[in-house]
C-alpha cells in the first residue's frame, strides 16, 4: 500500500506540475485543462497503465478543482467511460458508452433532463437502453450537452477496445462535433496504433 501511495503521489506531482516542462515530450496536462484546446490523447502499449491513469484523473479532487477553474464562472462536470473488449456488448460498444455518458450527465443535471421531457414527452416512454438506437443517442448527446450552462470534461478510455471499427468513426465524428463548442473537453486513451 505504501508503494502505491508513493506511486500515486509521484504521478499526481508529474501530471499537475508545471515545472521542468522542457524535459517532457508531451503537452502539460494542467496547461491543457486550463487552455482552450479541447482534446488530449494519452497513448501507450497494452498494460502500460492507461486505464489506471484515466480512472485516477477522472476521480481525483485536483482534477475537479482545475476543471472548475477552466469553467469559471460556471461549473464543470466530469463524465467517464472505459471500453473493455473482454466485457459485455455494452462495455465494448458505442451505444453502451453513450447510454452510460447520458446516464451520468442526467444524474448530475436532472433539470436538463426535465426540460427535455417537457419539450419531447416521447422520451419518457423509453425505459431501458434497448429502447434507444445508436442513432437516437448520437443525436441526443449534443442536444443535452448544449443545454447545460456549465462545462463538461469527458474521459474515454480504451478506444482500441471497440467492438466495431465503424463505431470508432462515429464516436470520433461525435467528439469532433461536441468539441467545436468551447464548453466540452475530451481526454482519450488508447494504444498508439
UniProtKB/TrEMBL annotation:
Domain Nephrocystin 3-like N-terminal: 27-191
Designated name of the protein: Nephrocystin 3-like N-terminal domain-containing protein
Protein's organism: Phialophora macrospora
Gene3D superfamilies, per database record: P-loop containing nucleotide triphosphate hydrolases
InterPro entries in UniProt: NPHP3-like_N (IPR056884), P-loop_NTPase (IPR027417)
One Pfam family recorded for the sequence: NPHP3_N
Family matches, as PANTHER family: AMELOGENIN, NACHT DOMAIN-CONTAINING PROTEIN
UniProtKB keywords: Repeat
Amino acid at each position: 500500500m505504501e508503494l502505491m501511495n508513493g506511486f500515486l503521489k509521484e504521478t499526481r506531482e508529474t501530471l499537475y506540475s508545471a515545472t521542468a516542462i522542457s524535459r517532457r515530450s508531451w503537452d502539460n496536462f494542467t496547461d491543457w485543462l486550463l487552455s482552450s484546446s479541447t482534446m488530449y490523447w494519452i497513448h501507450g502499449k497494452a498494460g502500460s497503465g492507461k486505464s489506471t491513469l484515466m480512472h485516477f484523473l477522472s476521480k481525483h479532487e485536483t482534477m475537479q478543482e482545475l476543471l472548475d477553474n477552466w469553467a469559471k464562472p460556471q461549473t464543470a462536470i466530469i463524465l467517464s467511460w472505459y471500453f473493455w473488449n473482454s466485457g459485455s456488448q455494452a462495455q465494448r460498444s458505442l451505444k453502451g458508452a453513450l447510454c452510460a455518458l447520458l446516464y451520468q450527465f442526467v444524474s448530475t443535471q436532472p433539470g436538463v433532463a426535465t426540460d427535455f421531457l417537457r419539450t419531447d414527452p416521447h422520451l419518457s416512454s423509453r425505459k431501458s437502453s434497448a429502447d434507444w438506437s445508436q442513432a437516437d443517442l448520437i443525436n441526443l448527446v449534443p442536444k443535452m450537452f448544449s443545454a447545460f450552462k456549465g462545462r463538461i470534461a469527458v474521459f474515454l478510455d480504451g478506444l482500441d477496445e471497440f467492438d466495431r471499427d465503424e463505431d470508432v468513426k462515429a464516436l470520433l465524428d461525435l467528439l469532433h462535433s461536441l468539441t467545436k463548442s468551447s464548453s466540452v473537453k475530451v481526454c482519450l486513451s488508447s494504444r498508439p496504433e
